[in-house]
Amino acid sequence: MQLTNRSKQVSNKEMTLAEKMYLPAVISGLGITIRHLFRKKVTIQYPEVKKYLGPIYRGHHVLKRDEQGRERCTACGLCAVACPAEAISMVAAERKKGEEKLYREEKYAAVYEINMLRCIFCGLCEEACPKQAVYLRHDRMVPVFQERDQVIYGKDRLVEKMDDRYVRAANSEVKATPTEPSLTRAAT
Question: Which residues in the chain show pLDDT less than 50?
Answer without folding.
Answer: 172, 174-188
